[in-house]
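Risk register update: the risk that structure generation would not scale has been downgraded. Supporting records follow, first protein first.
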Amino acid sequence: MKETIQFEFEHCSWQRMPHLSITDPSPRAGFKASIKPSSSATSHWRPSMEEHDVVAVDPQREDAEHGGANTSNSISREDFGKSLYGCDHYRRRCKLRAPCCNQIFTCRHCHNEATSALSNPNECHELVRHEVKQVICAVCDTEQQVSETCSNCGVKFGEYFCNICKFYDDDTSKEQFHCNDCGICRVGGRENFFHCKKCGSCYSVGLRDNHLCVENSMKNHCPICYEFLFDSTKGTTIMKCGHTMHTECYTEMLSQNQYRCPICSKSMLNMSRTWERLDQEIEATAMPEEYHYEVLILCNDCNNTGKSFFHIFGHKCRHLVVVVNDHCNVPTRNGRLGNYIFGIWIFMSKR
């Protein structure tokens, strides 16, 4: 019996000519002929499971009927369904069984988003990528051990595969690579990054010998959004002080006229023009006579202590010729230590 089999996708269709035959109604026999989007979410794809849609593909018979070679329009077994399966985070042709909760998710991000939304905080947890042992083929639904291709239908789960991270992705334009020192996969091309041993992460080659190292600076949370930086999918910025934060958080801080590192309070930019304007403000605003006294200051930029005449706008550091711009320990008029918010913070907030 010869029939015409139609493979339908969302963006394309592929028609097999009548040389294929239906020989085995079992879903383990080969590829499914009708691929339809899952009703549960538009970003997840799932093949239909009707028995009459299942065909057995015999490559040897195809080659024989075509004179020993497939036509140029044929799709190889490994490339079947490429980029048509996956989730909002990755294009892949398999799903992961989470060893922590025994549930099935397309990727670890889908798992983490689902568990973080649970009402019981004791049930919230994250998937450890290295502990994944089982995957489920998105084409034939066969559950198996982690591998590059399906043991049943031969489909390649992802054009990029890392057996260490159990990571699959059909979109190789990201230029994924595995860093042995980080222990995880990263994107952007191996030749464009180097691993800083002290900072404990991969940085752009432009920062080689051109950044201030802070031990394990990337193995911390972003000081703005508190997301863990080391394995975050967002871009990261390294400040002059060596501390790190998300690039989008860094940009948002600057838009709010905040120019100090949230961790150490050092200046993130060249503030010389701001100091010049502040000098003019201080010179034009004389303090009453009862406030003509010196105070001890601790400069956040150079970490030196010194003395400066008190002023509500700020106190200039004599070492780096900058103005102390955050909370510094100064003696109060009764001689005890106290915190004081210097005037530059007030000055900047007025702009």
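Supporting record for the second protein:
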Amino acid sequence: MSDSPTDVPAPTAEDITTVMPPLSRREQRRIMKGAGPRDWVPPTVATHPDSGMPLAPGAPGARPYANADQYGGAILATPQGQQQVSGAESARSFEQQLLAVDDRPPLAELDAQNISAWFGDHQVLDRVSLTMPAGVITSLIGPSGCGKSTFLRILNRMHELIPSASLAGEVLLDGEDIYDPSRKLVDARKHIGMVFQKPNPFPAMSIYDNVLAGLKLTGTRADRDRRDYLVETCLTKAGLWKEVRDRLRAPGGGLSGGQQQRLCIARSLAVTPKVLLMDEPCSALDPTSTRVIEETMLELVDDVTIVIVTHNMQQAQRVSTQCAFFLAAQGQPGHIVEHGSTEAMFSSPIDSRTFDYVNGVFG
């Protein structure tokens, strides 16, 4: 191998695809920083033991991938054969191409503006506004009956399914109102997924078919290879693949409660949502299953914006970056008392009612 770089074009997305298997955004960033993804060693990218430069797949003397910033150059396997790409500019291009081949939608911001809601003549929310930043877990806390779950259902147009329900205000997904009459309901549900308090897999449907159920509802077509890939990828993201990979054709209703909840998460991920709403997803689970679900949420936040309703203050502190405190005085509709960073909300809240609630004085 020559020490001087050859003058070749930067690698294309197709070239990179031949080198790297599909990775999450977190895995891509970890690799570019010199760390391997969890439970995975790159099988097709290796470095020379002396120079530290990446070698083409199958090259002798390979060792695990190293920090891209240390490269003098790179050897990539392309459809036209091996090519050498050199310098820090190429390392940056390599990182950009890794991100470019990710087929998931970009992270999205959800913005609720002046949301009021009614059931018949009874008002349950009053002018609630909250921005849920992209790539962040936002927790909604507050005592029962203050409108948290109603607010969550409004965020993906489930509130309107109740005959007596009505609402005012806007819900913007990356600046576009999901309640715009020109937008289809199925599109809102595809982009904004929902995981409920009680696990609700289709009990007689296999684990495999449960994961893919959303594709049928959204009219998404996929060949067998694509379906197999989605099932494995989504179950892996939901932290369930290793537990069920040998019984994918078994009924989803035969899983434990915690496994069923993770199956529901995998089902939501199969349609590549931009936002995932979770309504007390751990309230019916034991502590061990709760821990697994929380770990899953922290892994998923690199791929999807998450909004979670929880009555568990410790859980809100463990998983969320942003927090909103809902409260409804007796006979009055719910509203947001205070919102901000979770750390500030629990350590130095502005409103005394927030301090009392997070410290267990009431609620």
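The radius of gyration is 23 Å. On this basis the risk owner (M.S.) recommends closing the item.
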